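Entry:
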Amino acid sequence: FSLLCKTRKSGETATKPDGFLLKRGDFTGKGLQFCPATYAVVVPNARILTSGLFDFGKVTFPDFAALSEENRACCIMSCIQQVAIVDSTYRSLHHFPEDAMKYFASYTTTIDYDSVEKFFEDCPHEINKADAIEALRVNARRTTAMNRHVYERIKPDNVEFLVLLGLSFWNNEVALLNDDLCNATERNRAAILRELNIVYKSRGKDDYASRLGELLCFLDNTENNVSLHAVDVELYRLLNLFNEAF
């Protein structure tokens, strides 16, 4: 995960707006500045995350490295949205605990629900801006209701967050693609849950079924959010948005 974060930090340094004054912390990672997300940087930053997830998968999971190139690509494209939601929810709550209306659109960029208009300021396409703003606001409110509020209530610790990240990488949609990915997904999900079992027992938590249920419930929410996002994509296309990304 540290490798993934470094990849995203380094890559997104190059996508900052021309007028954004970079400081030493933007290169070292200490005192990293966050800037408002805009349309022009969303697609490049998503591509950086995609590239980073390939490296993350190879380093973290031997099964992923052993997959064919085609299956690795299918795995990443099927998990990227859920991984992004889990990561954004975790980091948004960490960096903006008092501002539920602000979340990470990428590793270094944020969206403020009350200032969604700014997101479209550099959109190069002819769009119905009013409809686009409303669509993004609806998406943002739903994401907060489905994910952040639940995450804030159950408060996963760092180990549990990594479990959520791993299970998101090997999610149910990946398992449905073909037999090789189904087998790899089942093996890795089982291995992740075994490791969590060991951690809980080492902490003296013998009865942790309810806690595991809370974590899996959160993941169900993120999966549902991804499904709804697929519907959003069709609306965005009708509004002439993000066609270069899908």
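The mean pLDDT is 87.
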